[in-house]
Every structure is written in C-alpha cells, then in structure tokens.
Amino acid sequence: MPRIEIGAWADAAVDWLRSNVAWLFDAITSVLNAVYGFFHMVLAAPEPLFLAGILAVLAWWLRGFLAAVLTFLGFVLIDSIEQWDATMESLSLVLVACLVIVVISVPLGIWAARNRAVSGAVRPVLDLMQTMPAMVYLIPGILFFGLGVVPGIVATIVFAMPPAVRMTELGIRQVDAELVEAADAFGTHPRRTLFRVQIPLALPTIMAGINQVIMLALSMVVIAGMVGGGGLGSSVYDAISSVDVGLGTEAGLAVVILAMYLDRMTGALNQRVSPLGRRALAKAQAALGGWKFLQWRPATSLAMVGVVVLALAAGGMNAFGGKSENSAAGIGDGRTINLGYVNWDEGKATTYLWKELLEQRGFKPKAQALEAGALYTGQAQGDIDVQTNSWLPVTHASYWKKYKNKLEDYGAWYDKTSLEIAVPSYVKGVKTLDDLKGKGKEFGGKIVGIEPGAGEMKIVKDKVLKDYGLAGEYKLQQSSTSSMLAELDRSIKAKKPVAVTLWSPHWAYSKYKLTKLKDPKGSFGSGDGIHALGRKGFSKDEPQVASWMKNFHLEEEQLTSLEAEIQDAGKGHEQDGVKAWLKKNPGMADKLAPAPGAYAKGKDAGAAPNIGYPSWDEGIATSFLWKYVLEQRGYKPKMRNLDVGPMWTGMSTGQVDVEMDAWLPVAQKQYWDKYKNDLVDLGAWYDKTSLEIAVPSYVKGVKTMDDLRAHKDEFKGKIIGIEPGTGEMKRLKSKVLPAYGIKDMKVTEAGTSAMLAELERSYAKKEPIAVVLWSPHWAYDKYDLTKLKDPKGTWGANNQIKTLANKSFPKKFPEFSKWLKNWHMQPEELASLEQAVNKAGTGHEEEGVKKWVDAHPGIVDKMAPVK
C-alpha cells in the first residue's frame, strides 16, 4: 500500500503558517508574555514566607484551620529545598494557561450543550487534543512561538482544555429540564435562564472540570521544561538528564505540594461559590459536633483583610530594607544574554563559565539546558543568543546544514576532539569496532547511547553500525548523557561488559580505565572542533560579546579542570564551581573577557600633549580616538580644532604638538615645504588616498572631468568646495580647473560640513551637483556617487595620511611618539570609526569613539602597548 505522507503534509502546513501567519504568532507571544510577566511579578515580589502566609489564609478561608497550617508548612518546605522561584514560575504558567482555558472553554461548552451540531463537531477535536501525546505539542510550539514560556503555555492550553469543555457541556445538559421550562413559562429571557438557573446548578460539574484542567496544566507545565519553559519543569528535566536523584526528589516534592494545594483549593472553591456547595458545607460542619473549630472558616471580608495586611507587609519589606536588585553596571548595562547548552559536561562547564564572566561585565545572562534539536531551532529563531557546544563539522552537521544561514560561527574554542565507542579496559579482546562483531551477547546486544538528538547518535545509527555489520546484532539504546554515565558506573562496579558512546575530551577517561575502540574505516569522521555559535545578527547587537567568543580558547587541561570543579560543586551550584576555578586561574577572566577601561598606565602618564585637528572626518575621528586611548593610559591630552594653515603654523612654533591628518606628498605640499625644518614626520598611518570631484550617479553622461566641462551649465556653473585653506582647494583652482578649461566655474568655500549638507539636500531632490571630495570618506557609503576620472593627472599622485609633530615632540613624549610611529589603520576600521563618530553627532565625538572601541576589543593595547 502506498505511503500516505501525513508527516510531509504537516511539515508543509507548519511552514505555510510560519510564512503567512507569523504576525498572529507574534501577537499571541506578546500577549502571553505580558500576562505571564504580570502573574510572575505578583507571585515573585513578596518574601516566600509572606506569600506562604497569604496562601495559607486563602486555604483557611476555603477549607479550614488545618488546611491553612498544612499549606504554610508545605510552602515553607518548598522554600527550604530551594525550589521556591521555580515553583512560582510554574504556578504563574498554570494560572495563565488556566485563565485562557476558562475564557475559551466555558462559553464553548455552553454552546455545545445548547447545539447538537456544535457538540458533534467539537467532540472529535477534543478527542484529538486529549489523546495526542503531550510532548508532540511542543514541536509546533517551538516553531511557532520559539523557546521559553509561550510554547509551554500554548501546549498546556491545547492539552488541558478538553475536560473544561466536556464538563461544562455535561453540567448544562444535566440541569433538570423542568426547571428550565418553569423559567421559560414565567417569561424569563434565555440569557437570564442561563445565568440564573443553568450555570448555578451546573457549577459543581463545571468546577470539577476546571479542577481537572489545573491538574493537567500542571503536568504539562512540567513537560514544557524541555523547551525552556522554566519553573519546576526545568528542575525535573535537569534531574532526569543528569540522573540527579536529590534534585529529582526535591523538584518532584515541590510539584506534589503545589498540585495538592491547587487541587484542594479549587475543589473547596465550589463550596464557596455554589449554592449547592454551601448547603453541603453547612451539613458537614453540623455533623462535626465538638470539632467544629477545625473546620471554622473566616468570613470572606476577614480573609481579605488578612491577605491585604500580609501583602502590604511584604510590600513594605521590599520597599524598606528588603533585598533590592540594582541594574547591573558595566559593559553590559544590565542587558540580557540568553545562553543555551546541551547537557554535556563541556557544554555545561563553558556555558556557566560565560554566565559568570558576563555577569562580571554587567550583563544579565540566562542559561538553559535543551535538547540539541530544540537548541539549534531556538537559536535559529533568535530565542537563544549564544551556545558554546556545537560539534562541527561532523557531529552536528545535520543541524548546521539546516540552520547555517541563521547562525554565526565564531570558530572553534577547542580542537582535537573525537567521537568513539568505549568499553572498560577489563573487557579483553575488544580494541577496535571490528572486535564488537560476534560479541553481542556479551554486551547484552546493546550499545548505551546518549540523547537521541545528539549528532553522535545519528552517526552511530546511520554509519558505524552499518559499516561494521553490527546493525542486526546491537541495538543503540537512547537515553541521556547522565544515564549513560550511570550505566557505565554501575557496570564497572559489577565488572560487567558494557559499550557506551563517548567522546574526547571527557572526564570519564580520568575516572575510569576505558578503551577507545579504534575506527579503522573512519566512520566517525576525522574529529570535530567545539564551536561557539551566535544567532544571526548577534555580533551587531552585542559586538563586544561576539568578539570575546571569537577569541575564546581553552586547553584540554583547563577544560577538564573546569569540569572537575563544577562536578565537585554539585547540581545547582555550577557557578560556585566556576568561581572556584577562576580563583585557581588568576587573570583568566580578564583574558577571556577583557574589559575596556581597565588599562595599565603608560610610562608618561600625566603628560598633556596638545593635539590639533582640522574639521575633516578622518581628522576628527582619529584625533578623538587618540584622545580616548591616551586617557586610558593616564595622559591628559588637550584638543584644538584649527584650519589647516593655522594648525601647520602652530605646530611649527610648538603651540600644537601633533596632528594626525597631514595629506602628503601632494595635497599639503606647500605647507610641508614651508615648515618641514620645524617638524618631524612620524610616518603614514593610511595609504592609497585620492582627491577628486564627485557627482551623484543619477547624473548621466558625467564620468570624467572633460564631461564636467561639457555639462557645466547643468551644474549652474559651480562646484561645491570645502575650506579655502586646504591643499585640495588650492590645487583645484591652480591646476585642475585650468587644465580642463573650466576656470570660469565658481568654487564655493563654505567648508566641509556645508558641502556635505548641500550634497544631502541636492541628493534628496535628485538635483545635479558637483562637490570636492576625497577617499576615504563615508559619503561614498551613504550615497551612490561617481568619482570623476582625471585623465590628465592634474590631481597628482595619491597621498598618504601622515602623523606630523613639532620637532621637539619625540623628546617631550617618547612613549606617545613610539606609539604613533607604529600606528596603522585599515580602510574598514577607519570607515567604521568615522560612521560611529558621525552617528554620535557634533559634541558627542567621544561617545562615538567609546562605542567603536567597545566594538573593537584590544584596540587600545594594539595602538598603545604597555608592558
């Protein structure tokens, strides 16, 4: 029978929805995030004991004194086992999901109860929603809504909704028909009949449905921890993936306490809001006799007073002397960085290492463990900023092939890895993968694997087993890294043969005596590098962090010692292990994440050189760059903005010590010839400059200076110039214009800023304009311009941009002089610096320079090295 491609249809449907209805998913994400944020803010704000007291008062109001005591003790226990924050996150998720479910399901159930056609159409949909495996909902949830709380909430809504619809329909249908007929007979409007007769009588059944919704929602919220949903789900997932009995017990106990509280309270709520429930409660209390005080419940007004008093007390503590979190200062300024990792030792170790480093630099990083597939999908969608656990080019090849256009590869921070199958060294006669053949019974017919989404598992299944003829003899057992290690430990203690998927580096080779099975056929490939990956655009959003990642590297000894410290610190204390490792490796934090601003002082710190600069973009940008660099080295530079002529004169007399914008040997030749005996040439920091006339590319037929002569009337007989004292302006008038017979064209002399303003105005109106320009200049990036060719060579040879100083400068500032002699800038560096300064605006040049320096870590040490 031909295969029905239901899976392919589902893929196509999901792709179509992502392409055409993304706006709807974005809107849902925004709304649910906002609602969740509100609930979590309310629940996380009070001190745990105060919120436990509030919940206890509610339990007292709903169920009595004993329930209140047990509630308080239960939540105190949650706090004592350090699961309070996770519990509040889970409670927030449940409340948001249940709120949405009630708003949708109760009206839908009422409609189904009143309309047989609706009931018939809804029933199979509810069957599908309720019987589909819960984890399946997470797959489209990730694709539509990304990682985090929203896919968990949406999956919870879909999974937990059916009982509310079914029980609402059932409750309405079970209302005595004679009562409805009586209401109709008295002329009651159907809407009033619904709200005054049917719903009050159906309320116990509806509340039973809502109770089931809450229980299902809590179970689904735990499952949602697999996609970064947070809360107790993350704790449970961490415990399972690391086979941590202690964490699993604590997280499970917190789930049980929360589930019991929600179950008992929603069940008791029916007795408070339903007439039938209140009657049943009165009968139960009457039957207690002398034990009535245990079931005494405060009036609603008294309970509300208690809740308000506790809430105000909690708010007062937070406002006066409670713990307050100031926004982090430093490079990060409190910005959030989302880190993701597969729960492998090197991934966990390096992720928590970077979490600690980023916190030290003022960021607010968040780390979450995910399956490999969810990690790559989430990162491609922008939910995860950085991961440090990508094994390329082999292990994670399938993920890289699928998502490489949405990711940034920052390179390998660790080389010389290998994938392998390993056996204990006491297993004799098994040295290669070939040796496994025929020994399936000895190993129980299985190879113990790790997470099913790991690239190594795919390689073993698709290549290794087939290449070595092991496919029918061995079964690759899917589990998790921690489960595999637990099985390895158990087997070694019992001296039983076991074959496991492993990789190098791994601390297991230090703890146990293992044999890496040789791979003569090369099925595992040539080995991977462990890469750091960023989401698309992360290097633009956080250039400093991306630069750190690109330069990140650890040796094997460093990595294994870091893993050992984290293992010793224990689950939930990974950062304590990182801190202990950093203490044993002083200077490592500054090496991995060098912080701009923490610079050593220069030998001549305190010196105050006078720096002159013209109002040209490269002059402004480089002069303020050197001002910043000198200040980091302890200098106290003084800045002077001068026209070209006065600056050369001031430099020759010693009033100006140095300038970085001398165009030689052509553009400023006349000044050099006049003052060269009083100056010293510190060398060129930029080559391949040019002087030219430029016109917008929309001006047709003007490609050379000869064309300009032919079309001079189109330009109203004028060329927009710059400062009159510049060498370019003098050369234009004395050589260029006469050589091309356009000496009669008027050259304006308003200055560089005025020229650029006129260019922008004319360009916006698509008017012809000819301007004096030079290369490099950011205008060529902003506008589409044509450099007019100079076939007669009147502009002369290309210039270099040099640093010149007064002849006494090298003796007065020997360290600064040495730095300038070795200084050089690449075209892309200068262009980006000019753009940063221009973007900051006049009067804010230093801010633009600082942003550029932050985006180019190490530039201060490169320009001004200090031992």
What is the number of helical segments per DSSP (H or I, 4+ residues)? Answer: 38
Helix/sheet category? alpha/beta
Radius of gyration: 37 Å
Physical arrangement of strands within the biggest beta sheet: 2-1-3-10-4
How far is the first residue's CA from the last residue's CA?
Answer: 77 Å
The rough form would be described as globular
What is the overall pLDDT average? 85
Determine the strand fraction and express it as a percent band: 5-15%
Pfam families: BPD_transp_1, OpuAC
InterPro entries: ABC_Gly_betaine_transp_sub-bd, MetI-like, MetI-like_sf
Protein name: ABC transporter permease/substrate binding protein
Keywords: Cell membrane, Membrane, Transmembrane, Transmembrane helix, Transport
Task: Describe what this molecule looks like in 3D.
The protein is of the alpha/beta class. The protein contains 38 helices and 20 strands. The strands form six sheets. Strands 2-1-3-10-4 form a five-stranded mixed beta sheet, with helices on both faces. Helix 27 links the parallel strand 11 (610-613) and strand 12 (638-641). Mean pLDDT is 85; it is low at 319-329. The chain crosses the membrane at residues 21-43, 49-78, 90-114, 134-160, 201-227, 239-262, 302-321. Its main location: membrane. It is found in: Cell membrane; Membrane. Belongs to the binding-protein-dependent transport system permease family. In the C-terminal section; belongs to the OsmX family.
Can you lay out the helices and strands and say which pair or pack?
Blueprint: H1 6-20, H2 22-44, H3 48-63, H4 65-80, H5 84-114, H6 116-131, H7 138-145, H8 149-174, H9 177-185, H10 190-223, H11 231-242, H12 245-273, H13 275-286, H14 292-295, H15 300-319, E1 336-341, H16 345-360, E2 364-369, H17 372-380, E3 386-392, H18 397-403, E4 407-414, E5 418-424, E6 446-448, H19 455-467, E7 475-477, H20 481-493, E8 500-504, H21 508-511, E9 514-516, E10 529-535, H22 538-541, H23 543-550, H24 556-569, H25 574-584, H26 588-592, E11 610-613, H27 617-632, E12 638-641, H28 644-653, E13 658-664, H29 669-675, E14 679-686, E15 690-696, H30 705-710, E16 718-720, H31 727-739, E17 746-748, H32 752-765, E18 771-775, H33 779-782, E19 785-787, E20 800-806, H34 809-812, H35 814-821, H36 827-840, H37 845-855, H38 859-863
Helix pairs in contact: 2-5, 3-4, 3-12, 3-15, 4-12, 5-6, 5-8, 5-10, 5-11, 6-8, 7-8, 8-10, 9-10, 10-12, 11-12, 12-13, 16-24, 16-25, 24-25, 27-36, 27-37, 36-37
